[in-house]
Amino acid sequence: MKEQMARASQLIKAKQYSEARKLLKTIDHPKAKEWLGKLDQIAPERKPRRWWVPALIVVLVAIGGLSAALYVSGQNAARGVVEDARQATVARLTTYCEEHGEGTSDCPLYARSTLREDARVFAAQSCFDLYADDAEAVGDCLLRAGMPLP
Questions:
Q1: In sequence order, which residues have a C-beta less than 8 Å from that of residue 5 and are 6 or more positions away?
Q2: Among 16, 18, 85, 111, which is disulfide-ready with 94 (CB 3.0 to 4.6 Å)?
Q3: Can you give the pLDDT at residue 76?
Q4: What's residue 78's pLDDT?
Q5: Three-state secondary structure along the chain?
Q6: How many CB atoms lie within 10 A of CB 101?
């Protein structure tokens, strides 16, 4: 133990505090504990740096930014699909109104107002696709989908 304490003293004099601390922690003696206390006062133990924490934060921020960009991009693409479908279905419903509507004076207005909701756009599109050659079946399908006939 005396040799270890002498070595710890040399390390402290050489300001090699972390090495001295390691050595003193291996000595089971009150004097070693006392020296550790003094050592903590003159040179507090430094915690090892967690280099990975800033790297993790950067990665998480990058993933979050990419996710947000992809989400917005997907939302814009979906809006474009819905708007394309809406325009095509408004045109088909306008034509249906003009050919089969009884007393409807403004078929484009009827079609636009009927297809304001996205669900109605796709329901009407399905009716036209399923019953393309049967105007009466298209009308029945539109009614079942909750849309007023012209």
A1: 27, 29, 31, 32, 35
A2: 111
A3: 67
A4: 66
A5: CHHHHHHHHHHHHCCCHHHHHHHHHCCCCHHHHHHHHHHHHHCCCCCCCCCHHHHHHHHHHHHHHHHHHHHHHHHHHHHHHHHHHHHHHHHHHHHHHHHHCCCCCCHHHHHHHHCCCHHHHHHHHHHHHHCCCCHHHHHHHHHHCCCCCC
A6: 18
Residue 6: both structure tokens together: 């002498």
35/82 same-domain check: no
**Other CB atoms within 10 A of residue 5 CB:** 16
Q: What residues make up the domain containing 122?
A: 75-144
Structure tokens at 136: 């009466």
Q: What is the pLDDT of residue 91?
A: 92
Tally of domains within the chain:
2
Establish if 56 belongs to a structural domain.
no
Identity at 95, one-letter amino acid code? T
Question: How many Å from the N-terminal Cα to the C-terminal Cα in the chain?
Answer: 103
Q: Which residues of the chain have pLDDT under 70?
A: 48, 76-78, 104
Domain for residue 65, yes or no? no
Q: What is the pLDDT of residue 61?
A: 84
- With a threshold of 0.90, does the pTM exceed it? no
pLDDT of the residue at 5: 84
